[in-house]
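Notes, Module 5: Reading structure tokens.

Key idea: the token line is not a picture. It is a compressed description, and you learn to read it the same way you learned to read a sequence, by spotting repeated patterns. We will look at two proteins. The first is printed below with its tokens.
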Amino acid sequence: MQALDIRPCRLDAKTQVLRAEVRAFLAEELKQYSPAERAKGLVGLVPEFSRKLGERGWLGMTWPKRYGGHERSALERYVVLEELLAAGAPVGAHWVAERQSGPLLIKFSAEVLAPQIVPGITRGETLLAIGMSEPDVGSDLAAVRTRAEKTDGGWIVNGSKVWTSGAHLAHYMITLLRTGPKEEGDRRAGLSQLLIDLKSPGVTVRPVYNMLGEHDFNEVFLENVFVPDDFVIGQLGNGWQQVTAELALERSGPERYLSSTQLYLAMLDEADPQDTRHTVSLGRLAARYAALRQMSLGVAGMLARGENPAIPATVVKDQGALLEQAIPEVAHDLFGDQREPGSDLDQVMRFLTQSAPSFSLRGGTREILRGIIAGGLGLR
């Protein structure tokens, strides 16, 4: 059996100076944002805000300068992410591209696609979506049916993707699909990743509205879409290995436990310090926040040391979703029949109560994550 080793990580003085700089910027930029608006930060699609972060050098912070990056440390990037999320900044427009698409292109298409695409990501100008999930296959990525057939100079793609956050604004979609046949006993064989220009003929993006009637998810339909050979990412048939490396980046960050933070802050504002139920319940949440922060920061430390954080990142994602989904339940228990209709607490609670069910879906369902953890620990 393997051990799960997440070592403590300490932030140095340089990161504290950076933290103060980011806080000052956010205090000015977000001064007109209400708590309800801040609660939507991770799905807040505001391209102008992304461009402002790019101007300050806070996108692509760890990437090589040849791609427009800044070659700063993973811990400096962590501090920026933490402050953005804690403040409820509208980071949804650039989030996918900066978190995982840029690193994927740098690693697997360093000479072809990365020089074309990544500098725009660092400026907050080029937005990407992820084409992984498909209708009717749930979280089983190996069951994808979208297919690319070889043609002169490229590939013809047919199929569909769903839950593609921000695809209606994105310029490109990194797409997992089949370029070859499955092999007996190995459904993961024949999978590849292609970069699809979402303005290409044959691409249709349709909105998926959530329970709030809001739109950040989409379905993307691909009908005889031509993708040039240069837009193949990495090696044909290596899609499964590439996408699992990408998912490690998706699961490790502070966004995996901070999505309900605005509701926690609203509860602190409304709490009665003389009420033992308030003190105990909110104190327990604070303890869980502290533990998850240390785990998430430990994963950032692994990245800084060049280690593979796949299993620890999956644990952070799994446990972070439990915390995020527990906070609306605590809010209803403590303030459900006391809050004033239309108050900040009421608005934030309504939004997160309806949003929280999705927190255990994004980045992989709980069942998938726990299977990965069990496999990584040698338990299956």
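Here is the second protein, with the sequence above and the tokens below, as before.
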Amino acid sequence: MLHHASLGVSDIERSAAFYDAALAALGYIRVWDDIRPGQTGQAVGYGLPGGGDKLAIKHRPDGQRAPGPGFHLAFAAPNRQAVDNGRPGLRSHYGEHYYAAFVIDPDGHALEAVFNSAE
């Protein structure tokens, strides 16, 4: 249903370094960027190699706030081994094979890695 999601971040370079590392474990890479230090309108797009962006982070230094409780983004993991941060484990209340973990980005956005299949 979704084409992509965008998140506002207060420091584009710090957030890009975080997302580069966090998403690499799931097989996602930086597919484009528009980082120009000292300028506004900067952004970075992430997706699968050879594809378009599914997540964009956009520099919004003024008034940046993460959404409140209940909001998070969940990223598909290729296997259980890729879900390795934030106390990974089965979440049987979501399904028999729902294996997930959470991390929080530098601006407080909650991110989940999910592998939902029998191995």
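Summary for the second protein:
- The helical segments are 12-24.
- The radius of gyration is 15 Å.
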